[in-house]
Amino acid sequence: MRQRSYGAVDVHYPPDGGARAALVVAAGESFGPPLSEHTVWLDEVAAYQPGLFYLRELPAVRAVVAVAATPLEVLVVDGYVDLDPHGRPGLGRYVHDALGTAVVGVAKTSFQSATHAVAVQRGGSTRPVYVTAAGLPVARAAALVSAMVGPHRLPDALRRVDRLARTG
User: Fold this and answer.
1) Which of 73, 91, 71 shows the shortest CA–CA distance to 81?
2) Of 32, 33, 38, 104, which is most buried, counting CB atoms within 10 Å of its CB?
3) Helix (H, G, I), strand (E, B) or coil at 24
4) Which helix H or strand E contains 138, and what residues bound it?
5) Is 66 helix (H, G, I), strand (E, B) or coil?
């Protein structure tokens, strides 16, 4: 039986250009102690285009996921899977379609048209995170985010992958 792995991914774009993608891999849905951490540097990335963010982000996500030693059961991304209840794709949908992996989107801000997102309050925060999903029911995704390790609004795995993407 293969080990189930769960990943959290983020990408940072330094002002001088390029991008650093980071991936934290854990053995369980709670994202306890990481099994591994990976970073990948891309010298060139697409320019930011409003409404086409995935063109910039997806190559970096694919590159860092490719270096993981084990297939991922679920990949958590910073942002939305779908931008509205009718399925207008956000980054998470493009990642799901490209990789075939279940994707959980965790957004820090409410997107007006994302009325389908499940608000999850974590830690002592009064501000929720907004959860969407592809490849698994959104209720399961919300429960996963709620149970992720960490006392803060953002789970520890998302805080760690953000830090790795920024600093290497």
Assistant:
1) 91
2) 104
3) strand
4) helix 138-147
5) helix
